[in-house]
């Protein structure tokens, strides 16, 4: 999914100087962003106070939206560089096309994982016809320097491992939880899991104390380590945890995001992640001049033009403002 802001703010993120080494409870509020004609998203990362959680560097939550009489998601071809995109649905379908020739329909709790590497372009749209409701999350994972120029590729994993406990069903998106491992390709120590809680569930999820974590609330009413977390908000949890208490006041859906704190400093602007201003300037120029990012075949519409570059300097810094 694209960052469709026409005046995107550069995000200078990464580095371990601002990672919280002990458990905390830091509630992050979203920023509302229009995405195409009929979709509004709640952007949790990058956030005013926190830029990354492990290698997770971008989190949008959208829906549930009634799109029965709407076009639904319509994101024209756009570029990516230096990252992976994770498409995750609770309701609806998204048709993915990219410049490597991939064409896949992603359905609820199936993993659509695109590794941009050196350069890729893709589009995302609700199929025609489509289901009434659309609800999901779009996330980015920053690639480390050693892998940020890998060949672009797309993975679709319709079957994923599941961990269960009384009142809990955890689907592995990336990484490992309680001995179960996702088939999705990763390039840094990372974890992502979809947590479905039944009303009244009171469980403790095992965690890696070397990881930092956050929990995104997708639906329902729940408490994460005693903190009420409403849909569309995210609770940052810091590091140093061996388990996470979860309680559901109603049937609820959460996403657990975590990973080893990302050591490298990054520059993220629009849909590009680089290590310097020169990386970003060159990527924008290549996209606008039709180089490097390839072409998405079959989408009915023109690709997105890149916004103008900001007047402020682009330089890598830590993962908080």
Automatic annotation (TrEMBL):
<comment type="similarity">
    <text>Belongs to the pirin family.</text>
</comment>
<protein>
    <submittedName>
        <fullName>Pirin</fullName>
    </submittedName>
</protein>
<keyword id="KW-0479">Metal-binding</keyword>
<feature type="region of interest" description="Disordered">
    <location>
        <begin position="298"/>
        <end position="321"/>
    </location>
</feature>
<feature type="domain" description="Pirin C-terminal">
    <location>
        <begin position="193"/>
        <end position="291"/>
    </location>
</feature>
<dbReference type="InterPro" id="IPR008778">
    <property type="entry name" value="Pirin_C_dom"/>
</dbReference>
<dbReference type="InterPro" id="IPR014710">
    <property type="entry name" value="RmlC-like_jellyroll"/>
</dbReference>
<dbReference type="Pfam" id="PF05726">
    <property type="entry name" value="Pirin_C"/>
</dbReference>
<dbReference type="GO" id="GO:0046872">
    <property type="term" value="F:metal ion binding"/>
</dbReference>
<feature type="binding site">
    <location>
        <position position="78"/>
    </location>
    <ligand>
        <name>Fe cation</name>
    </ligand>
</feature>
<feature type="binding site">
    <location>
        <position position="80"/>
    </location>
    <ligand>
        <name>Fe cation</name>
    </ligand>
</feature>
<feature type="domain" description="Pirin N-terminal">
    <location>
        <begin position="41"/>
        <end position="141"/>
    </location>
</feature>
<dbReference type="InterPro" id="IPR003829">
    <property type="entry name" value="Pirin_N_dom"/>
</dbReference>
<keyword id="KW-0408">Iron</keyword>
<feature type="binding site">
    <location>
        <position position="122"/>
    </location>
    <ligand>
        <name>Fe cation</name>
    </ligand>
</feature>
<dbReference type="InterPro" id="IPR012093">
    <property type="entry name" value="Pirin"/>
</dbReference>
<dbReference type="Pfam" id="PF02678">
    <property type="entry name" value="Pirin"/>
</dbReference>
<feature type="binding site">
    <location>
        <position position="124"/>
    </location>
    <ligand>
        <name>Fe cation</name>
    </ligand>
</feature>
<dbReference type="InterPro" id="IPR011051">
    <property type="entry name" value="RmlC_Cupin_sf"/>
</dbReference>
């Amino acid at each position: 999914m694209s960052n469709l802001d026409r005046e995107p703010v550069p995000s200078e993120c990464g580095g371990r100087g601002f990672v919280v080494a002990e458990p905390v409870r830091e509630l992050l509020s979203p920023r509302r962003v229009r995405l195409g004609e009929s979709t509004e998203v709640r952007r949790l990362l990058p956030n005013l106070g926190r830029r990354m959680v492990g290698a997770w560097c971008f989190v949008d939550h959208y829906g549930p939206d009634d799109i029965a009489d709407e076009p639904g998601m319509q994101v024209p071809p756009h570029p990516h560089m230096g990252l992976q995109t994770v498409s995750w649905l609770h309701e609806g379908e998204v048709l993915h096309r990219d410049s490597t020739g991939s064409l896949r329909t992603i359905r609820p709790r199936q993993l659509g994982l695109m590794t941009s590497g050196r350069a890729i372009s893709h589009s995302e749209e609700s199929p025609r016809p489509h289901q009434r409701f659309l609800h999901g999350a779009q996330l980015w994972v920053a690639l480390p320097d050693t892998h940020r120029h890998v060949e672009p590729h797309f993975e679709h994993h319709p079957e994923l491992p599941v961990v269960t406990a009384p009142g809990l069903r955890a689907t592995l998106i990336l990484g490992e939880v309680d001995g179960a491992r996702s088939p999705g390709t990763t390039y840094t120590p990372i974890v992502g899991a979809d947590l479905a809680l039944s009303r009244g569930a009171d469980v403790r999820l095992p965690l890696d104390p070397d990881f930092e974590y956050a929990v995104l609330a997708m639906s329902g009413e729940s408490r994460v380590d005693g903190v009420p977390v409403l849909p569309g908000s995210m609770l940052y949890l810091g590091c140093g945890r061996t388990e996470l208490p979860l309680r559901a006041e109603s049937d609820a859906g959460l996403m657990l995001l975590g990973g080893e704190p990302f050591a490298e400093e990054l520059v993220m602007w629009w849909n590009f992640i680089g290590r310097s201003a020169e990386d970003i300037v060159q990527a924008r120029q290549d996209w606008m001049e039709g180089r490097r990012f390839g072409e998405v075949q079959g989408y009915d519409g023109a690709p997105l033009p890149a916004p103008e570059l900001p007047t402020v300097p682009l330089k890598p810094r830590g993962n908080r403002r």
